[in-house]
Amino acid sequence: MIELSSLTVSYGETVAVDRVDLTVKTGEIMALLGPSGCGKSSLLRGIVGLEPSTGDILVDGKSVQNVPVHLRRIGMVFQEAQLFTHRDVAGNIAYGLRGLPKKEIAARVTELLALVGLEGMGERSVTTLSGGQAQRVALARSLAPRPSVLLLDEPLSALDRVLRERLSGDLREILKAAEATAVYVTHDHDEAFTVADRVGIMDFGKLLQVGTPAELLARPADSAVAGFLGNMPLLEGRVTERSGDRTRLTLPNEIEIPGTVDTDTVRLRIKPLP
């Protein structure tokens, strides 16, 4: 489990992450979704310790705010695989297992190769891998030391659309099989909804809403969330009459809706019936 309390990341006077509170349960996959520059990648960098932050970060109930990066037990997968070209596939996966008995390392590498669908490829040079295979190796390398939390910063963004769509489903299966607690950053709606159990919408450094994909689509917290999800139009309306439990609006055409409102202007979201 990871818990963030008023986490803030700043670059000089620019606030990139603004007092974010978030809890990700053990074994849960949380996606952070938002436009470029909204602060989602800065949030990951603050969690892992690559950027200074204020607030608190608890991993399995213990604060890691003042713990060095290499001791936080947090793994990270970046946009580019960033593999060690002087090591083969197995050598890359084993990198975080240094100091363990050789038999234990070999068994863990074999287990992870099977988990990410690369059985029998341990001796392959990483320079011969496709983009999708390279990211699978990077994922296996991050999972190897069994981190308490795994952070993934747009790991599929460098791949083409077709491959991204195929791997997003595989990635969810891999993370669930590994029982990983994960925070997954993306700007792609479909990718977030495919991979994650819950999704957090970010903009301007703030976490606007957290919920399951179904909850976000059915009940966006505000017009910013609804607008970002972008699949349903918002209409501006003006209240022209209130009568009991009914309200008459001009949209510009006049309609009557159930319920009452206490403002003179409203925004309506149009959603098709199931």
UniProtKB/TrEMBL annotation:
<feature type="domain" description="ABC transporter">
    <location>
        <begin position="2"/>
        <end position="229"/>
    </location>
</feature>
<dbReference type="InterPro" id="IPR027417">
    <property type="entry name" value="P-loop_NTPase"/>
</dbReference>
<keyword id="KW-0472">Membrane</keyword>
<dbReference type="GO" id="GO:0016020">
    <property type="term" value="C:membrane"/>
</dbReference>
<keyword id="KW-1003">Cell membrane</keyword>
<keyword id="KW-0410">Iron transport</keyword>
<dbReference type="Pfam" id="PF00005">
    <property type="entry name" value="ABC_tran"/>
</dbReference>
<dbReference type="GO" id="GO:0016887">
    <property type="term" value="F:ATP hydrolysis activity"/>
</dbReference>
<dbReference type="GO" id="GO:0015418">
    <property type="term" value="F:ABC-type quaternary ammonium compound transporting activity"/>
</dbReference>
<dbReference type="InterPro" id="IPR050093">
    <property type="entry name" value="ABC_SmlMolc_Importer"/>
</dbReference>
<dbReference type="InterPro" id="IPR017871">
    <property type="entry name" value="ABC_transporter-like_CS"/>
</dbReference>
<keyword id="KW-0813">Transport</keyword>
<dbReference type="InterPro" id="IPR003439">
    <property type="entry name" value="ABC_transporter-like_ATP-bd"/>
</dbReference>
<keyword id="KW-0547">Nucleotide-binding</keyword>
<keyword id="KW-0406">Ion transport</keyword>
<dbReference type="GO" id="GO:0005524">
    <property type="term" value="F:ATP binding"/>
</dbReference>
<dbReference type="InterPro" id="IPR003593">
    <property type="entry name" value="AAA+_ATPase"/>
</dbReference>
<dbReference type="InterPro" id="IPR015853">
    <property type="entry name" value="ABC_transpr_FbpC"/>
</dbReference>
<keyword id="KW-0067">ATP-binding</keyword>
<keyword id="KW-0408">Iron</keyword>
<dbReference type="GO" id="GO:0015408">
    <property type="term" value="F:ABC-type ferric iron transporter activity"/>
</dbReference>
<protein>
    <recommendedName>
        <fullName>ABC-type quaternary amine transporter</fullName>
        <ecNumber>7.6.2.9</ecNumber>
    </recommendedName>
</protein>
